[in-house]
């Protein structure tokens, strides 16, 4: 029933079935983790908050998945919770691990962003050599060396086009060859993911 309700797009009913019929908070937490829905975590807290045993299970297992204060603030006053001290210590430890991971990821992202910006700056400042053999990627004719005077467009990717071969209506002036190649890559990844999920 839990599986069917989840597949039918009713995960809250499936979660309620786990809590009220199976009375298994660990399976409820596992189900919420698999679904990855914030509203489902809120429903889990709401359904479990009146059961001290379930509250202990939540305190022991959800520190890295939700904001702990969301759970603690909803616990009714004067509620006796088994092993509350040990559960709070574990909750804080799990939350601190999550904070440390986020800080580490932030530092890595900042460093990578700086390195990539420097690389982009160097690439944009580098020269691109064009000679008489350079051909237009649209029509296949030589860009320079013809009798008639013609403008040409050079993209940062290194591809060159005649001015007349570039779509003037395209204000972004994207490289046609790179655009087609990128679209094909995205389409290939999408098809791979669809086949993987079937």
What does this structure look like?
The chain is mainly alpha-helical and about 200 residues long. Helices cover about 60% and strands about 5% of the residues. It has helices at about 1-5, 10-20, 25-35, 40-50, 50-60, 70, 85-125, 175-195, and strands spanning about 150-155, 160. A two-stranded antiparallel ribbon has the order 1-2. Strand 1 (about 150-155) and strand 2 (about 160) form a beta hairpin. The chain is elongated and about 90 Å long. The two termini are about 20 Å apart. The model has no long low-confidence stretch (mean pLDDT about 80).
Question: In a nutshell, what does this entry contain?
Answer:
This protein is mostly helical and 198 residues long.
Shape: elongated
Low-confidence stretches: none
The SSE string, one letter per element, is HHHHHHHEEH
Report, as a whole number of angstroms, the end-to-end distance: 22 Å
Question: How large a portion of the residues is in β-strands, by DSSP E?
Answer: under 5%
Q: What structural category arises from helix and sheet content?
A: mainly alpha
Sheet with most strands: 2 strands, antiparallel
**Tally of helical segments:** 8
Mean pLDDT: 79
Q: Widest sheet: strand order?
A: 1-2
Query: Helical residue percent?
Result: 55-70%
> Rg from C-alpha positions?
29 Å
Query: Number of DSSP strands?
Result: 2
Pfam families: TPR_Vps41 (PF23556)
GO molecular function, one term: zinc ion binding
Keywords: Metal-binding, Protein transport, Transport, Zinc, Zinc-finger
InterPro entries: Clathrin_H-chain/VPS_repeat, TPR-like_helical_dom_sf, Vps41/Vps8, Znf_RING
């Amino acid at each position: 029933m839990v599986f069917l309700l989840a597949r039918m797009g009713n995960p809250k009913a499936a979660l309620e079935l786990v809590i009220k019929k199976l009375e298994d908070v660990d399976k409820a937490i596992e189900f919420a983790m698999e679904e990855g829905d914030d509203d489902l975590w809120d429903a889990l807290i709401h359904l479990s908050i009146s059961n001290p045993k379930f509250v202990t299970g939540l305190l022991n297992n959800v520190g890295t998945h939700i904001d702990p204060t969301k759970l603690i603030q909803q616990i009714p006053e004067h509620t006796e919770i088994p092993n509350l001290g040990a559960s709070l210590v574990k909750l804080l430890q799990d939350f601190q691990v999550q904070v440390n991971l986020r800080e580490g990821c932030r530092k890595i992202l900042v460093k990578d962003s700086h390195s990539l910006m420097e690389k982009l700056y160097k690439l944009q400042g580098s020269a691109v050599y064009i000679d008489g053999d350079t051909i237009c990627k649209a029509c296949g004719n030589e860009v320079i060396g013809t009798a008639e005077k013609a403008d040409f467009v050079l993209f940062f990717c290194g591809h060159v086009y005649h001015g007349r071969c570039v779509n003037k209506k395209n204000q972004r002036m994207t490289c046609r060859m790179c655009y087609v190649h990128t679209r094909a890559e995205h389409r290939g990844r999408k098809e791979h993911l669809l086949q993987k999920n079937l």
